[in-house]
Design goal:
This protein is α+β, with helices and mostly antiparallel strands and about 200 residues long. The protein has helices at about 5-10, 45-50, 65-70, 75-80, 105-115, 125-130, 170-180, and strands spanning about 30-35, 40, 50-55, 85-95, 120, 135, 140-145, 150-155, 195. It contains seven helices and nine strands; from the N terminus they run H-E-E-H-E-H-H-E-H-E-H-E-E-E-H-E. The protein has a seven-stranded mixed sheet with strand order 2-1-5-4-3-7-8. The protein has a two-stranded antiparallel ribbon with strand order 6-9. Strand 7 (about 140-145) and strand 8 (about 150-155) form a beta hairpin. It is globular.
């Protein structure tokens, strides 16, 4: 059976709330988080089913998130291209209570506002975000079905809050993973707003 490392174990490696650093090939920290409808999502359950998982760190009030969910439909369009290929896409909001874009109710309105076809999960403690080393919104991860990190970085190659990039790194990584090829750009520099962790 394939196993992702337990998030509790990952957190033991974090000192003083420091972010982890996950490299391609590392085991993805396991987690269970709840979406806006109260449904639990367990990473290992998806991996055991042979699915590839995309994680998108999310803050609905961040201009870079608005770029990809409102000005353009980057995330929705990317998901539409892969959803029939055993790919699960999960947005995660690790904003602490009282921070910009945080909370269950804001997640709920964002799902409607941005017509999101995939769930938004709540991580108010920031434990999952810190275990993954999520720095920005968006910060993207592709987790292969064997439980390892296949991609860590930006959604595309243009760190502007308004201009679209020419290369979608997440789609490129997914195409490689699904075809059994090596991911050409397995790590890129994420861009966006900082994840609004608590102190």
């Amino acid at each position: 059976m394939r196993h992702a490392i337990l998030i509790t174990a990952a957190l033991l490696l974090l000192a003083g709330g420091a972010l982890a650093e996950l490299a391609p090939g590392d085991a993805a920290p396991d987690f269970t988080l709840t979406d806006t409808a109260g449904r639990e999502h367990h990473l290992q359950g998806y991996l055991d089913a042979g699915q590839t998982v995309v994680l998108e760190w999310f803050n609905p009030d961040c201009p870079f998130i608005k770029k990809h969910h409102a000005s353009a439909r980057t995330m929705n369009e990317a998901y539409a291209k892969v959803k029939d290929h055993d790919v699960v896409w999960l947005a995660i909001n690790s904003g602490a209570p009282g921070k910009q874009g945080a909370g269950l109710e804001r997640n709920r309105t964002a799902v409607t506002e941005y017509e999101m076809p995939f769930p938004v999960l709540l991580d108010e403690s920031g434990e999952v975000g810190m275990a993954y080393g999520a720095k920005t919104t968006p910060h993207m991860f592709v987790i292969a079905a064997d439980g390892t990190v296949a991609y860590n970085g930006a959604i595309d190659d243009n760190p502007s809050p308004s201009q679209m990039g020419e290369t979608n790194y997440v789609l490129a990584a997914l195409h490689a993973v699904l075809s059994g090829a090596e991911v050409e750009h397995a790590t890129t520099k994420p861009y966006g707003c900082s994840v609004k962790y608590g102190k």
